[in-house]
Amino acid sequence: MSRDARWKALLELLVERGRLDVEEAAADLEVSAATIRRDFDQLAEQQMLVRTRGGAVVHGVSYELPLRYKTARHASEKQRIAKAVADLIAPGEAVGLTGGTTTTEVARALAVRSDLASGSPALTIVTNALNIANELAVRPQFKIVVTGGVARPQSYELIGPLADGVLAQITIDVAVLGVVAFDATHGAAAHDEAEAAINRLLCERAERVIVAADSSKLGQRAFARICAADAVDTLVTDSAGAPDTVRRFEEAGLTVVAV
């Protein structure tokens, strides 16, 4: 197992469990305890975990796994969700995409749609996510609009007043939100308040709003609110969502698409 793969596995285990012992992690990953100790030390230097006697705990109260380490989590569900979201987008529309692993998959699903292979433009994509802009910039049929702002390394998203200034000058047909948590009572949320503020403004500039979230995000709460549930038109999720949770979203007036 490569170091990058090992680090990704360690961080995902840490997020799931909150705490890891060296011996426990070594057994899970089938490597030596010395290797795990070295990995923990190096990850602690990058402030991605907190070293403890004999192990590690998550960094901070509201820990956020950086985007590059989240791509494998619920991957098949996110790809199904992304295709379903992409199918809701009409040629010629202006589409806002926030950052995140699921919205990155939405961008990829849009890029391979045969009916969007040409046009002037086939779609206008507005995003504050540098990785999404980078992937779609090679598609000449897409007009890519990137907000200004300061890059947030955890999510590759641009945040701050420079991004506000661009979004205040445009209108879009549909905003696609990637979220950390989505609850029928408490709404959509992110870990970071500046990121949530940009996502909120993107929603306000849109004719309709789609939340793209795997079922692990549903019924959850996070620190920074993006918008109320009734500001969302459609929730696209996977079929593993709890029926009661899905019903609460439907009672709040959302169209729920489960794939």
From TrEMBL:
Assigned keywords, A-Z: DNA-binding, Transcription, Transcription regulation
InterPro entries: Carb_Metab_HTH_regulators, DeoR-like_C, DeoR_HTH, NagB/RpiA_transferase-like, Tscrpt_reg_HTH_DeoR_CS, WH-like_DNA-bd_sf, WH_DNA-bd_sf
Domain (HTH deoR-type) ranges: 3-58
Protein name per UniProt: DeoR/GlpR family DNA-binding transcription regulator
Molecular functions (GO terms): DNA binding; DNA-binding transcription factor activity
Annotated SUPFAM superfamilies: NagB/RpiA/CoA transferase-like, Winged helix' DNA-binding domain
Lineage: Bacteria, Bacillati, Actinomycetota, Actinomycetes, Kitasatosporales
Pfam families recorded: DeoRC, HTH_DeoR
Keyword DNA-binding: yes
Cross-referenced Gene3D superfamilies: 3.40.50.1360, Winged helix-like DNA-binding domain superfamily/Winged helix DNA-binding domain
Superkingdom field: Bacteria
Organism: Streptomyces sp. R28
